[in-house]
Design a protein that fits this description.
This protein is of the alpha/beta class. Among the domains are: about 5-20 and about 600-675, no CATH class; about 30-230, Ribosomal Protein S5, domain 2 (2-Layer Sandwich). It is built from 20 helices and 14 strands. It has a four-stranded mixed beta sheet. A three-stranded parallel beta sheet has the order 5-8-11, sandwiched between helices. Helix 11 runs parallel beside helix 13 (about 415-435) and helix 12 (about 385-410) runs antiparallel to helix 13. The longest helix has about 35 residues, at about 245-280. It is globular. It starts with a helix and ends with a helix. Mean pLDDT is about 80; it is low at about 20-25 and about 595-660.
Length: about 675
């Protein structure tokens, strides 16, 4: 007779042995709160501005559902919902946990109405991240800056006023966006001249570092949320990129793309030649219809176009020979624009109905490409590789649509032909990108439609938030018209689309141009802005190494950015775009990995041969990510066989299944014995 205590003891041992197999579906529990001081700008009744402070209370609870709750007292003039949601998303990425695993609460309490709500979103991300990581915050640190989806701290206004408010609240350190150690304030000066009083607004540049020293406050610029958290936690959190260097995998991706890119080059050169030859067949007939100054002017434009085409193709050939096919393709694209302009200019002279007919043709091509992308997504689903191709395809298609709109707004034939040429060239390259969908697919896990919908919503609503912020502060500083128009064009298109892929592509483009607008409005130092974004990109690239397959557009963006060093505005737009897409891929990668919290890989394989027996030892490492820590369990399986056996195969899942069934069977027998006893 088996004793009852002995049977219970055996059951407990077996249950303990089985526990790891049945408890891998964990539930992460957390309830953390933080209070932090924020500073903002308030406008007085006379139109002047002052700095004010407020208290920000945040709370993070897990498990949750990815809800973000925001309250302000009193109400702010700018909606905080979008920027607070992005702050929570960025904080989740910093903590390497799923945004949808927790709920986030933010409460802002101030004695006075404030403006510039998004300027507190950077510190909101810091507060959320510190709660997720269970890190304390230094109460002597106060920060201002807008959080962007990549974790960058974007430029904001009213820094001098905010520094005043920070000093009043006892700050010892004041963190500002990178490059914004100077601020411009506008003083109203009244001067009596005879019987009249003349009022003037005089700009005054304030060195914030020196001014802060007078207030016993150290002013420190930060490029991104990683640097900010390190300072807020007194160095407990280190802003050191984690993970492996992804350069090898990026090089591997680029090498697989080389064949395609070198195929693009003859396609582009062939199209350039075809279009130029077509234009030359109608050149004499078109030019014969114009006389005098108009004829001289048009001939001058054609000569300039021909010179530009030759110059661009020569530079492109050099880049192609030096192993930079994507940068070469970009120059061929510019040459193609000039070729189309040459053709359209002459056709518009020869046929007054040409412009309207061509607009209709290009417009149809744009929507055909967009519709094809949507249908492909519905039929084939989406993974990270397809998503990167889709975003680039749609971005080019919608940019073609923007150029069509500019064509309709133009009055002069040379400008009309130029915008129409840009539209044609853009839709041509959109079709080239679309062909990649069938070549590069199935990399990594499929991206669920819900994740795409939510990401598109956050990116598009953040665009609206930043746009409102720019409008609110545009009266304080002059924004270049060309910069503001480019941002407005893309934002206007964004408001008109419903498909999540369209929203994502246009949202990324909008924020990239709005970043340029923010820099132009508040910073006006493109080199500092470029340096700041590069810092964030370097961190993001290392974090992105956790993805099974980095998106294929990343090495192409990097190559293009290097080729744009002489054009800081364009380079900043490209850098902003790259940084945002990196963050999107990173967040989606985290979500996909958390859908399968258990991952296994064969990390070591050792073979020994002794006395006619071959022993193969396989070490399997199972990693379970449970923020803020990772648990690694190592299991060793040894298989013995005769040396004449050529293949050894150990099916780990089958072994686990057999072991589990056997253990359950033993438990059942013991329970029966226990019942009989």
């Amino acid at each position: 007779m088996v004793s009852r205590g002995y049977v219970i003891f055996i059951v407990l041992i077996l249950a303990t042995a089985l526990l790891p197999a049945v408890t891998l579906a964990y539930s992460y529990s957390l309830d953390e709160s933080r209070r932090i001081v924020i500073v903002a700008v308030s406008q007085l009744s006379n139109g002047s501005y002052i700095g004010v402070s407020a208290d920000l209370y945040v709370r993070v609870t897990c498990p949750g559902s990815g809800h973000v709750y925001v309250e302000t007292l009193p109400l702010t003039q700018i909606d905080l919902q979008a920027s607070t949601r992005v702050a929570a998303l960025v904080a989740s990425s910093v903590a390497n946990t799923s945004f949808y695993a927790c709920d986030f609460y933010a409460s802002v309490k101030s004695d006075t109405p404030i403006i510039g709500g998004p300027s507190a979103s950077g510190v909101t991300a810091v507060a959320f991240a510190s709660a997720l990581l269970r890190l304390p915050l230094n109460e002597g640190v106060i920060m201002t800056g807008m959080i962007l989806p990549d974790g960058s701290i974007g430029p904001v206004g009213g820094l001098k006023y905010k520094l005043d408010a920070a000093a009043i609240r006892g700050a010892k350190i004041f963190l500002v966006p990178y490059g914004q150690t100077k601020d411009v304030v506008y003083r109203v000066v009244s001067q009596r001249i005879g019987p009249s009083i003349i009022t003037r607004v005089i700009p005054e540049t304030i060195d914030l570092v020196s001014y802060g020293a007078q207030l016993n406050v150290q002013v420190i610029p930060v490029a991104n949320v990683f640097e900010a958290i390190e300072i807020f936690t007194n160095g407990v959190y280190k802003a050191i990129p984690r993970g492996t260097n992804p350069s090898d995998r990026l090089s591997a991706i680029y090498s697989t793309l080389n064949e395609v890119l070198y195929d693009w080059i003859p396609n582009l050169t062939s199209e350039i030649m075809k279009v130029v030859n077509e234009s030359k067949t109608i050149e004499d007939r078109a030019l014969s219809s114009i006389r005098g100054y108009s004829g001289i002017y048009i001939r001058g434009i054609l000569q300039s176009i021909d010179s530009n085409i030759d110059n661009l193709q020569s530079r492109a050939e050099i880049l192609a020979r030096s192993g930079k096919p994507y940068a070469a393709s970009s120059l061929y694209f510019q040459a193609l624009v000039y070729a189309y302009q040459r053709l359209y200019l002459l056709k518009a002279i020869a046929d007054e109905t040409f412009i309207s007919n061509e607009i209709s043709t290009i417009n149809s091509s744009v929507y055909m490409v967009i519709d094809s992308v949507h249908k492909y997504h519905l039929k084939n689903g989406m993974d990270i590789a397809r998503l990167s191709i889709t975003i680039n395809t749609l971005d080019r298609a919608y940019e073609a649509l923007l150029y069509i709109n500019k064509t309709l707004e133009s009055r002069y034939i040379d400008t009309i032909s130029q915008y129409l040429a840009l539209a044609s060239a853009r839709i041509y390259t959109a079709k080239l990108w679309f062909t990649l969908l069938d070549k590069y697919q199935g990399f990594g896990s499929s991206v669920p439609r819900d994740d795409l919908d939510r990401m598109a919503l956050y990116i598009s609503t953040l665009s609206q938030n930043i746009y409102t912020y720019i409008v609110a502060f545009s009266s304080m500083a002059q924004l270049p018209e060309d910069v503001s128009l480019e941002a407005v064009y893309r934002y206007s298109l964004l408001l008109k689309v419903d498909n999540p892929l369209d929203k994502l592509a246009l949202g990324i483009s909008s924020i990239s141009y709005m970043h340029l607008a923010l820099v132009s409005l508040f910073l006006q130092d493109y080199n500092s802005a470029i340096e700041a974004v590069n810092k964030t990109i370097n961190t993001s690239l290392s974090l992105l190494s956790t993805l099974n397959m980095p998106p294929i557009d990343i090495p192409l963006h990097i190559e293009m950015i290097k080729a744009l060093e002489s054009y800081p505005q364009t380079q900043l737009i490209m850098l902003s775009r790259l940084s945002i897409v990196l963050s999107i891929y990173r967040v989606l990668g985290i979500e996909l990995s958390q859908l399968q919290p258990q991952s296994s890989e064969i990390s070591k394989e050792v073979e020994t041969q002794e006395k006619g027996t071959q022993t193969k030892t396989i070490t399997v490492t199972t990693t379970i990510t449970m923020p803020p820590e990772t648990i690694t369990v190592t299991t060793t399986i040894t298989a013995d066989t005769q040396t004449n056996t050529s293949n050894i195969h150990v099916n780990l899942s089958s072994l686990a299944l057999v072991a589990t069934i056997a253990a359950l069977f033993l438990i059942a027998i013991l329970l029966v014995m226990l019942k009989k006893s």
